Amino acid sequence: MDEKKLVISMIETIHLDIKGMYCSACSGRIEKSVLKLDGVFDANVNMATERGRIVYDSETINKSMILERINKLGYIPSLITQKGINEDKKDAEINYLTWKVIFSILFAFPLVLTMFVQADWIKVDLPSIFLNPWFQLALATPVQFIIAFPFYEGAWNSIKNRGTTMDVLVVISTTSAYFYSHYLTVRSLNMDFKDHPIHLHFETSVLIITFVLIGKWVEAKTKRKTLDAIDSLNKLKVNTAIILENGNEVRKIIKDIVPGDIILSRPGERIPIDGEVITGQTMINESMISGESIPVEKKYGDRVYAGTVNLNSVIQIKSIKKHSETVLSKIIDIVQDAQLSKPPIQEIADRFTSIFVPIVLVLGFITFMLWYFILDPGILSAALEKTIAVLIISCPCALGLATPMSIMVGSGQAAKLGILIKEGKMIELLSKNNIVVLDKTGTITVGKPQVTDILVRNMDSTLFLQLVGSIEKGANHPIGNSIAEAIEKKISDIPLAERIEVMFGYGVQGVVMNRTIKIANVHYFKKHQKAKYNPYFEHAKKLEQEGKSVMLVSIDDRIHGIIAVRDEIKKSSAKAIYRLKRLGFNLVMLSGDNPITTKNVAQNVGIKNFEAEFSPQKKADWIKAAQKSGNHIIMVGDGINDAPALSVADVGVALGTGTDIAVETGDVAILNGDLNSVVDAIEISKKTLRNIKQNFSWAFIYNIICIPLAAFGILSPWFASAAMAFSSVSVVLNSLRLKKIPL
To answer: Taking 70 as the threshold, does the pLDDT of residue 424 lie above it?
Structure first.
C-alpha cells in the first residue's frame, strides 16, 4: 500500500503560460517535443488560451527540464499557479496587436495607391514621390522587419527544430517579394519614375503582412469571446472575506483563510469559500454553479459553496476548504482541462497539419518552375507572383483551429448549464453511443426516500432506533441518510458507530456498543442467512408490493426489525427519458432495489428494459457484456455506489447536487442532479461535433479550391493573403455559433 502511494505521489501536473505561438501548428510541435522527454506522460497545449498542461514523473524529470525544452523550440514558457484566463493580460495583448495593425495599414496605404497606377483599367495621378522605389522601400522595410519580426522569429525556430509552420510560408512569400523589389530598386537609379514606373512588389509583401495581422487581430478578438465560460467562472471568485476573530470583524484575503475560520456573509454578497452554516438562515442562489435557477434554503449544518450568492439574511459560515480546493475551483480546473484536451477527431487534423506546409512548399516550387520555364518563360516577376500567391493562400491554421475552437465554446456552454465535461474526447464520445444505462435511486428518483414503516420485534424500540441510527448516520447513501434523519427526529441520544462498512448493492454494516449491526435488503439475507427468517421475508414482500424499498435489520446475526422507505420519482425524469428515446437511444435501468419497486419505477417513466437486485459490480459486468456485443454505453448514476459501472462505460455520467462527489466522479458531472441535463449534454455533444465537421469541411474545401486558383494566376498575392486570414477567422466565427444554438 505504501509503495502505491509513493508511485502516485511522483506524478505531478504543471500548467504553463506559453508565449510565441503564432500558428496552430506551434501547439502540436510543443506537444510532440515535450512528449519525447523521458518521464512525461501527457502534454496538452491550447493555442487559443496560450496555456499548456504537462503531466510528468517528478522522479524522472523536473519542471526546469520541461521549460528548457519548450524554450529551445523558440517559445517562452512560464509556470502559473492560478488556473484560468488572465483577462487584463489578454486584453493587453489584443491592444498591442491593434497598434501593429494600425501602423501596418498606415505604411501600406501609400503602396496600395501605386497598384492603381499599374492597373490598365483605371487612371490615377499620384505625386511622383509615391512612385519612387526608394520611397516604397522606406515604407516597406519597417513593416517587413519590425512589425513582421515575430513571423521571422517563428519561422527560424521552426526550421531550427526541423519543423514547418505557417510562419515559414509568410516569411518565404513576403521576403521573396521584398528582396526582388529591392533588387529592382537598386537597378532603377537615375530613372524617371513618373514616366516609366517600375513594377515593384513592395505592396505585395506589405499587404500580405497587413492582412495576416488583421486576420490575427480579428481571430484574437473572436477567440476572446470563446473564453467567456472561464472568465464568468473566475469572476465568481471573491478576493476577500470578513472573518470573525474574538468577536471582531477582520477582513482577510481569501488565500489566507483556513478550514475552521468563521466567515460573516451578508445579503447580496457572494459566498467566499466552501463551508457549513453555523448561524442564521437564508436563501442561496446556486445557479452559476449548478445551473439551477431556483434559490435554495440554507440553515444550520447545510453546505454552502464559493461563488454562490447570499440573497436575504446574514449568516455565519465555518470554512471547510482552502480556496484552491473549493467546488468552484475544481469546476474551473475541469472546464479548462477539457478545453486543453483533444478529441479523437483532432488527431486527423494534427497528422494532416504536420505535413501540410511541406506539401505547400513543394507546390510553390512546382508553380514557380511551370511559370518561369513553360507558361511565361523567363518572366521572373510573373512566376514569383504566382508562387507567392500559392504560398500565402494555403492555410493550415484553419485546420488547426477547427477542433479546439468548437471544444472551447461547447464545453463552456455546458459549464454554464451545470454540466462538466472533463475531457474534450468525451464531447465526441457522448454522441457516438447507442445505449443509455440508468441507475434508479438518485438518478430517476429523487434520492431522498421517506421512511414509511418501522417494525421492531423482540427488542426495546428505543435501543433498536439508536443502533440503526448510529450505523446509518455514518453511511453515505441516500436511503441511509433518510433513515438517519427520521430516527433523529424521534430520539436525540445516538451513539457513535465503529467499523462502518458498505456492502455494495446490499446495505451497510458496523459495530455499535459492541453489537454487530447489519442493515440490508431482502436479497442479502436470502443469500447469506438461513430460512428461519422466512416470516420477515413474507412481511417484506407485502411492503415491496406497495412500491417500497425494504431493509431488514440484523443485530448480532438475528433479525429484529424491518424499515421500509419510498423514493418519489423526479418530476423531470419522464420528460428526460422521452427526449432520450427521441434521440434514438436504447434505455436500460439497472437497480439494486427489489424487482417490484424497480418495475413500478420503470413503468412510470416509460422504460421497458430493466433489471433489479443488481449490485454495482453486476452493473459493471452487464455493461462489459453489452460492449462485447458491439454496443457503446453511457452510464448515468449517482457517482457513489455506481463507481464500477461509471468507470467501465464508454462515458460515465455522475449526477449530483454540486458536491465534491459529483465534481470528481465520472467523465461528465451533472451538478444539478437533473436527468434532463444528461440529454442537454448529449445534444451539446452532437452540435459541437457537427460544428467541428463544418470547420473541417470549410478548411479542406477552401484549400482545395484556392490553391489551384492561385497557381493559375487567378488570385493575386494580396487577395490570397486576405482570403487566408478570412479562412481562420471564419472557423472561429462558426465555432461561436454554438453559443447561440438553442437546446
So the answer is: yes
